[in-house]
Recover the amino acids of this structure.
């Protein structure tokens, strides 16, 4: 652990190491040697991928960001009143614009004490921390630089005030169902009896609306999808012909998730030099790059129950496109 900053109001600790940078290599090695090729979505987000994602959030077709923001703006006061929260732990905090809405409500309620952002980008956490301590006198920021799939145990202990642990944006939808339940159970280890999880989930709706959100008319999502190939080319000295792959997005009704894939237009052989690996694609062969699960309240309740959690609050936008839910540790 390297302590990067430690002023009176701000502590930032980094848990990313040389070892962690290797996770792309191992994920590529696993994913591209499977009979049905697959890569985990977290590797979309280098500098360019993060910019493309920001552009996605502004697309007319991509409703989740706006729907979630509407809920936060309309209901943050109610959420803060229901929980009495004085601390916000945010998993995958990014630039903290959603956190700001919750922090403002906590400040208004007079409970605000500490913000604990956990994110892979040190720069982003650093900038957000400095801006926020200026905005809120007395606010403590304890940044954790790491990967929330591996560094949850680095989140500092609660400070004696009720805490809200937030996972927003629908990120939970990226996990396949069993892993999702395991991850929710691990989040539960951050909660005491008076703490709550605040979870953002996209909801099941008309498949056309969902599919348009993942296959926009400007092709931004297609570029975002292909970006994972650019990342592999650069980081692992590979030669994916990135323009030779078509963007595919569809809603799988049986599993209630969106899948994004990349389809090889023609047969090709790809060298991944750093891994000493040669991978063949048949013409039309698809590589799965993301699943994004869509939820119903009932299914989310079943996931919570399987993870030792219990639904305590349910907040949706006007059109019931997206939900924020509050969950506590289940009794027993
Ligand atoms: C950041 C995982 C919530 O699944 O909607 C957006 C990522 N992928 N467009 C989502 C994404 C394609 C997004 N999450």
């Amino acid at each position: 652990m390297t302590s990067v900053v430690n002023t009176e109001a701000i502590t930032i600790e980094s848990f990313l190491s040389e070892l962690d940078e290797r996770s792309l290599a191992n994920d590529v090695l696993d994913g591209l040697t499977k009979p049905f090729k697959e890569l985990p979505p977290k590797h979309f987000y280098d500098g360019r991928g993060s910019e493309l994602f920001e552009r996605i959030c502004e697309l007319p077709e991509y409703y989740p960001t706006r729907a979630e923001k509407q809920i936060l703006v309309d209901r943050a006061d109610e959420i803060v009143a229901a929980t009495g929260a004085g601390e916000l732990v945010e998993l995958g905090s990014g630039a903290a614009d959603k956190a700001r809405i919750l922090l403002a409500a906590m400040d208004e309620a007079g409970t605000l004490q500490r913000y604990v952002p956990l994110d892979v980008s040190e720069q982003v956490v650093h900038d957000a921390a400095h801006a926020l301590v200026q905005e809120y006198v007395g606010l403590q920021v304890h940044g954790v630089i790491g990967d929330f799939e591996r560094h949850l145990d680095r989140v500092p202990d609660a400070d004696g005030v009720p805490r809200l642990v937030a996972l927003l944006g629908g990120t939970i939808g990226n996990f396949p169902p069993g892993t999702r339940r395991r991850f929710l159970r691990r989040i539960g280890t951050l909660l005491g009896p008076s703490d709550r999880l605040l979870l953002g989930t996209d909801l099941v709706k008309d498949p056309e609306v969902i599919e348009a959100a993942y296959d926009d008319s400007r092709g931004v999502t297609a570029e975002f999808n292909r970006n994972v190939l650019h990342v592999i080319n650069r980081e692992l000295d590979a030669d994916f012909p990135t323009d030779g792959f078509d963007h595919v997005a569809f809603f799988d009704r049986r599993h209630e998730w969106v899948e994004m894939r990349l389809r090889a237009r023609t047969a090709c052989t790809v060298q991944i030099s750093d891994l000493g690996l040669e991978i063949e694609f048949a013409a039309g062969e698809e590589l799965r790059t993301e699943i994004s699960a869509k939820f119903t309240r009932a299914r989310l309740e079943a996931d919570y129950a399987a993870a030792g959690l219990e639904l305590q609050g349910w907040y949706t936008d006007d059109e019931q496109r997206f939900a924020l839910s509050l969950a506590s540790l289940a009794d027993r």
